[in-house]
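Work Package 3 committed the consortium to producing structural models of liganded targets before the mid-term review. Because experimental data for this complex are still outstanding, the team generated a predictive model from sequence and the ligand definition alone, so that downstream docking and mutagenesis planning could proceed in parallel. The input record is reproduced below exactly as it was submitted to the modelling pipeline, together with the SMILES string for magnesium ion.
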Amino acid sequence: MKIVALNTFIVGNPWKNWVFVKLTTDDGITGLGEATGGLATKPHLADVEELRRHVIGEDPRHPERIWYKLHKARYLGVSIGMSAIEQACWDILGKSLGVPVWQLWGGKHHARLRVYGNGWYKGERRPEVFAELAAAMVARGYTALKFDPFGGAYQQITRESEELSVAIVAAVREAVGPDVDLLIEAHDRFTVSTAIRLGRRLEEFRPFWLETPVRSYDLAGHVEVQRALNYPVVLGEAFSELRQFADLLAYRVIDIIQPEPQKIGPSKARQACAIALAYTALVACHQAQSPFCTAMNAHIHASIPNFLIHENFDDNLEPWTWDVLQGVPRVQNGYITVPDAPGWGVELNETEAEKHPYSDTYFLRLFEEGWETRRPPAPKA
Ligand SMILES: [Mg+2]
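The resulting structure, written out as tokens with the ligand in place, is given here.
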């Protein structure tokens, strides 16, 4: 079996353009992967396009070998495009054998995955707005919700914005009651001292975790924040090397990691899970791309014993999403049932995808006030 074509697609989701990759083999099997970047689109499209010449002619039934070929071709580089190609190869391998990808990884530890909702607070940054939207998610069956209450804060936070952040968390806790888990996202915003002060102020609301309170590369900084708090500090979505997970966990202070399979590739993400296992740590893979990654992460999470919780935006996306992506497992009563279809189980409807083109305004502006609305800015007059 040989790869004979590599095609790319951009789908214009209003807060982040999605990039997809399709590989086609000489016997007609296709594989889907996603190369959606953090907050860039065309660099990742170009990344995949430039890798094409290394991929055409390869046997896709060797996803890890192909990833290492690209790794070496890029002088030991790691990229989202490399991951997308690896993802598409796993899809083809699963389809060629008629089995879901989790089967290839030793079977299932979990038939259902507990989900935390994200992207649900698309509104004004006011406590009553967050509270109302959180209550609506709980009414749909969600038992855990993630949100960033800190507005556009960068490094420090104004006194007024700090008070508002605390009031938002208080209002959400009040609205959802004591039994729903609240995951606080800080998007790498703060210095260590600011993170510790904010983290301590939030303790009374019993957060499930505080995510990336300081820069993701700052392992020692995260360790210091964790030592100051009585609830978990988590990170890992920005890591591109397995060594970073090992270095972090070797402190023996932080015990939840968030590999991003989109960034390091699904195989490397599972290897990060194994490193976590060695330290009795738990895994909650990061996911903020299209629902294709809901399916991919479900296969990964199903196949590891140390799964904690599954990130998900899917109930807060545009209604047309489900015409573009077919086969994604949907959240029901706060859980996802792990899919059984061959490969990842997801297909891209290319005709529907074409109806939603790229826009250079489809980017979150995480360090500007108002980003929570997840809508493009109004055109300048
Ligand atoms: Mg995050």
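Reviewers should note the following from the model. Residues 185, 211-212, 237 surround magnesium ion (CB under 6 Å). These observations will guide the Year 2 experiments.
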